Fold this protein.
Amino acid sequence: MTSPDRPDVSDRENARLRTMLAHAEEVNELEKLHLARTLHNEFGSALTALAMRMALLAHQPAGAPGAAEQWAKANAILAGLTQTARQVQSDLRPGALDVVGLKMALEEYLVEFGERHAIGVALALPDDELALEPAQAVALFRIFQELLRNVRLHAGASQVKVRLALDSAARAVTLSVADDGIGFDAAAYDLQRSHGLRRIAERAGFFGGGMQVDSAAGQGTRVLVTLALAKPVPDN
Amino acid sequence: MRILLVDDNDDASTSMSDLLSLYGHHVRTAADGASALDIAGQFHPQLVLSDIGLPGMDGYALAPALRRLAGDRRMVMAAVTGYGQSSDRECAMRAGFDHHLVKPLAAEALLRFIDEQRLSFCSEMS
């Protein structure tokens, strides 16, 4: 015979697993949606434009007046497409994360983000090596990408400061992304309205951490995300 | 033909405009719904090629507004979008578009489509 409280525990555990699975599926779908939008918005239009330019070039002799300008425009579109393709690859799986680790991956992505969107960037990293599980590093990088996406789409910022810090005593790692944009009333904000912030909070919660949003109208926004470290922090 | 192109992607609309002009069409471009309506009021396009994802008023809202503006005048409207699913086509048709073209769009496909529209206009006039 099983103890009377056992079915309850197993029901609760099943319900928790079902919620987690549903959440993972939702995240997966949202990421696919984001990719589909990028493909539509950027690839569809740029490839169409390139096809038109090539058709125009096919109708004129190489030395015809305006041909050089057509070639230059076609090349510019091709350069834009190449950059978007790299961006999509990096969004799908940041290669730098596997090769050089989280710190350099953050730096590489942030510099590219600043150049691409003409936003000033600053990055502060801990000197210590981070003893992160691969899944934690990926989660932090995804959270960082999502926060920068928010800055780009909603903040209207001219400057973004990113800080990654190790709190050895609390055995936690914190990521802070602060912008000087329009801000919003964080106290009155319903987190459920933002898929992005909700996903970040849930992701951080999954790794034994949390998210804190500090913002007010006209005061910029700072999001602080904490993840609990799985391994002991090295002494040195 | 008088063709109005509505697309917020400048590369896409100028390159399409250059190509169609080369083929003897009269082309005007608009980057959003409001300017498309302004231009259409004076230009009286016979064919409108419009993106759906536009800033402000989207293509689904623009189509009925353009149709009202045209009144009894014949005007063919085609949605040009990156969304190729049948539900997207249905949405475009419900909004009042006559055709649904999917990006990326090849130059030959675009020219063939426009030629078909031109012929249908000619046969109606003869």
Notes: The mean pLDDT of chain A is 82.
